[in-house]
Design a protein that fits this description.
The chain contains 5 helices and 7 strands, in the order βααβββααβαββ. 39% of the residues lie in helices and 33% in strands. It has a single domain, classed as Aminopeptidase. The chain is globular, with a radius of gyration of 14 Å. The relative contact order is 0.15. A 7-stranded mixed beta sheet has the order 1-2-3-4-5-7-6, sandwiched between helices. By secondary structure, the chain is α+β, with helices and mostly antiparallel strands. The longest helix is centred in the middle third of the chain and has 18 residues, at 75-92.
């Protein structure tokens, strides 16, 4: 597998998403994120994951994810990246939480260990 995961700055994230149809949402997400990670495969970004702790001293973080067209084309590799990312994130934060609006994404999040506290809200705890 020719893939890698690394941290990028908010400026790099925005530069990579210049053609994003939801540019305003991406810009807001970048401003809130303390960390932004990118999962790459064959020099193409598959996904971006941002972490936004509610406060500077928080031990937990809100997580958001943007999947690219390449990520949709390489679902197995995307899933492997996300498993690795979840491990990396949970090493830093004992709990991550977020919102999910897609049944397909909800199934996938449950495989990562997510527990749904409502129909759209989830959390994942370090084990």
């Amino acid at each position: 597998m020719n893939g890698e995961i690394y941290q990028i700055s908010g400026e790099q994230f925005l530069a990579m998403l210049e053609d994003c149809p939801d540019w305003d949402k991406a810009k807001s997400a970048a401003k809130l994120a303390a960390d932004i990670l990118v999962g790459m495969y064959n020099s193409q970004p598959l996904c971006y994951i941002g972490l936004a702790p509610p406060t500077v001293l928080s031990e937990y973080a809100f997580v958001w994810m943007i999947t690219t067209k390449a990520g949709e084309e390489h679902k197995f590799i995307l899933a492997r990246h996300c498993q690795k990312l979840a491990e990396t994130i949970l090493a830093k934060y004992p709990k991550i939480f977020g919102y999910c609006y897609s049944p397909e994404s909800a199934r996938w999040l449950k495989r990562l260990g997510a527990e749904f506290t409502s129909t759209t809200e989830f959390e994942i705890w370090r084990k």
